[in-house]
Design brief:
homodimer, 353 residues, alpha/beta, 434 Repressor (Amino-terminal Domain), Rossmann fold, six-stranded parallel sheet, five-stranded mixed sheet, 40% helix, 16% strand, DNA-binding
Chain lengths: 353, 353
DNA sequence: ATGATAAAGTTAAATGATTAAGTTTTCTAG
DNA sequence: CTAGAAAACTTAATCATTTAACTTTATCAT
């Protein structure tokens, strides 16, 4: 039986090698390169390490030496807390987690929204990054770029990197067309997500309507507008809301405002299912019949969308698949291809019954 | 203007020091210990580093040297993907993320369920751990224990560590009492979570009913049983279901089975709101009126609980607060106290209207 | 001016691993 | 039995930092 070192000092390759009477290199090889030593010695070393309570090389030291940590960073444009709350993000992260776990990679969550003190140098740890959401000149993102490590971007696109997107504009146009075609004398409201840089729920101005950006939301808005035009309808900025965060609270506020206007809209285009869910709740509260008096469409097809009553008509984007694909591109090193995932219009009960 | 090193080699303290003509120590101090050099030189160094594109010391090397990474590990008993899907876990993680972000700590998600190959030594990286859920002799958990790093456990208890729990038994008893007191000729079913070690939805056997473990679910079960006894009612194991994962799919299967029994239960005690939500869906499908013909109670008070129709009567446990508290204990170094968070019975519409 | 003291920088020894290159041991064939 | 090759193991350089201990420069009262 081996005598362990005093409990307080953590075991190292060196201290263990001293106890076992072999070189540090041999123990390292026992853990990492079985072909470099005899099977007999290897078994003996592994067993003795077990007894001592040494469970293998320190990750930090190994990472420093090998330049490889086994950690994948997910870079998120908003605060971390938000990503645990948002159902779409949850699905996306679920997909990532699935693939990383299968490949024995660890998952480090990094938020760009962290306050100015970005001194930690955390970007040097992960072996690669999945970058989610638009990153307009974010400092952490800039640093990540400079590491020259593998990157896959999702829901936005930058030259030189693998990316995963959907055709937001076409999908939005399709769902809007469907909704408008089933609405007589359409009076349209749009509940948009992050259309402008404000932290408050509000309507947008005429100016802001034409300030075309490249965000996911702006592309959806463009899709809606195309549908409205093709149907020879129109909408003013008075009927377009900006919702800063994809939460029930914000969405409820906007929904309540939107359904209190005169004339009251009979067709609400929502940029997320969370928003659409809030509209349904307010409609019930106000005794407005959906879909008879009011058509509602969402976006995303989150799990809850099929459980609302009436069940939500929406655009399905395979968010889990997005995550899976992002992670697998990264672990497989497929770092150039730009993928557009398909979407599908899901007809449930909030447009026609 | 400074000339940067060739692009391919990443910048280091050493390479930068060569360019700037000062020692590595001074640059290190410029970043970490402003008092160790003149403000003038420091400003100059920082500006020059900026120009060169050196954004501060490499985290891995710094961690190795200082023994401190700024990373907090969250050790999860199930697969990672599960924790992004489960609404209770989402809230818990939201709370953690909030506090860590405020304290400039990074969040590393670690799953115990990872297949046998646990060679990575990842437990050496984080500065501390939040351990969530029962860990019956899990190898990764054992290693974490051996690191002697700060640990806070949540939803289970081990000697020597700070822990956060709720009184599952009392809370379950309370909600069950309430439900039973409002049910005439009660015919009870229990939809339990992870009562036994099976991956399939099934009823439990008489034996398994009395196999008392120490899990959260078992304590809730005990609470239910106490209420049933105190009301001079009874239940057989035929009316107790085991649901392996807290998902709608599993729960729906169990709910469908439970509402197809003869005699049909008129009071269902659910160990989670997800399960209760599934029961409501099946009840609607079968045209069973809730609460008139069927009382349903859940557990957790997830956000969706207030949005179901009818709105769910349940036990509120402040899951976000749990996460916040766990993280703040860890960052503040309060590593001994064992906290029992309060719960509250939330009376909505699924027991009385 | 001068010696003492404080401030500003530098040197060099850790930190815990990996791995190329070198050394010793074992094996094989003639 | 021995040279040569292969296998088994060790040595020592390296990874990018931090920081105690040391050296140099500046400050200041006398």
């Amino acid at each position: 039986m081996l005598i362990a070192e005093p409990k307080n000092k953590p075991l190292t390759l060196k201290s263990v090698s001293k106890v076992l009477g072999v070189s540090t290199a041999t123990i390292s090889n026992a853990f990492n390169r079985p072909d470099q030593l005899s099977a007999k010695l290897r078994d003996k070393i592994l067993k003795q390490c077990q007894e001592l309570g040494y469970h293998g090389p320190n990750l930090t030291a190994r990472t420093l030496r090998k330049g490889e940590s086994g950690v994948i960073g997910v870079l998120l444009s908003d605060s971390l807390a938000y990503y645990f709350t948002d159902p779409v993000a949850n699905q996306f992260l679920t997909g990532i987690a699935e693939v990383l776990e299968k490949n024995h990679k660890q998952l480090l969550m990094l938020s760009c929204a962290e306050s100015t003190k970005q001194t930690s140098g955390i970007e040097t740890l992960p072996d690669g990054f999945i970058v989610y959401g638009t990153q307009d000149k974010n400092p952490l993102f800039e640093r990540v770029l400079q590491t020259n490590k593998p990157i896959v971007t999702v829901d936005f696109d930058t030259d030189n990197y693998a990316s995963i997107n959907i055709d937001n504009q076409a999908a939005a146009k399709e769902v809007a067309m469907y909704a408008l075609q089933h609405t007589q004398n359409a009076n349209i409201a749009i509940l948009g997500l992050r259309l402008i840089h404000s932290d408050r729920v509000c309507r947008i101005t005429e100016d802001e309507l034409y300030n075309e950006g490249e965000s996911v939301s702006r592309r959806r808005l463009t899709g809606y507008m195309q549908a409205i035009n093709e149907q020879d309808l129109n909408i003013t900025s008075d009927y377009i809301w900006h919702i800063p965060h994809n939460t029930y609270e914000d969405a409820t506020k906007a929904a309540r405002e939107a359904l209190s206007t005169h004339p009251q809209p009979n067709c609400v285009l929502c940029m997320s299912d969370v928003i659409a869910g809030a509209v349904l709740a307010i409609a019930r509260e106000k005794n407005i019949q959906v879909p008879q008096e009011l058509k509602v469409v969402g976006f995303d097809d989150i799990p809850e969308a099929s459980r609302t009553s009436p069940a939500l008509t929406t655009v399905c984007q395979k968010s889990i698949e997005k995550g899976r694909l992002a992670a697998s591109k990264l672990v497989k090193g497929e770092l150039t291809q730009k993928t557009i995932l398909p979407t599908a219009l899901i007809k449930r009960e909030t447009v026609e019954f």
